[in-house]
Amino acid sequence: MKEKKRIVPILPAGLTENSPTFEDESIIETIYIENQRVDGADFHHLFFKESYFKRLQISSGFLKQFECINVIFENCDFSNTEWIGAGFHQVEFRQCKLTGTNFAESYLKDCLFTDCMLDYSSFAASTMKVVHFAASSLRQSDFSEIDWQYLRLTDCTLTQSQWFHTLLKNLDLSKNQFDTIAVSPEFIHGVIVNAEQALILAETLGIIVK
User: Fold this and answer.
1) Model-level pTM?
2) Residues with Cβ < 8 Å from 21, sequence gap 6 or more?
3) pLDDT tens digits for 16-39?
4) 201 by DSSP, 3-state: which?
5) Cβ contacts of residue 106 below 8 Å, gap of 6+?
6) What is the largest CA-CA distance in the chain?
7) N or C end of the chain: which has fewer CB within 10 A?
């Protein structure tokens, strides 16, 4: 599949540096936040727009119907945060901790995850369009039943990741590492792997190679 260029976040010049109030239906836009921690986060309809967040921590939060457009997250910690059904448009996660973060049923378009910790994260039943995972750890992550277009994974660790009922045709896994991976045999046709990975998949599917 021909690669499609990702649209990067568009941020205005001169972002305001302040500490906004996080609450239901807040619209947080055109700001720069650094070194902020939000405890007990449980918000509905929180909206981030055209902003840069550095070392923001919202661990084990519940962000229902969260929306995020033209945003950069750098060195942030969102471990075990629930983002079920969220929307991410032109968003970059740089060196972020997303261990156990739940993106299930979310919509991600023009997004980048680079040098991130995403072990045990879930993207189950999500829609991904022009999404790139680079140099990130995705051990035991869940990509089951995702609907994707122009999904890229490079230099990632995918050991024990799950891809049940996800069409893998034209998905290139060859530039990543895994020693085990879970897939649905009826959806594996056309996946792109290297020789070593082909043997791993063969063993997973019960094929004996002599």
Assistant:
1) 0.94
2) none
3) 998 888 889 999 999 999 999 988
4) helix
5) 83, 84, 85, 86, 87, 88, 123, 126, 127
6) 64
7) C
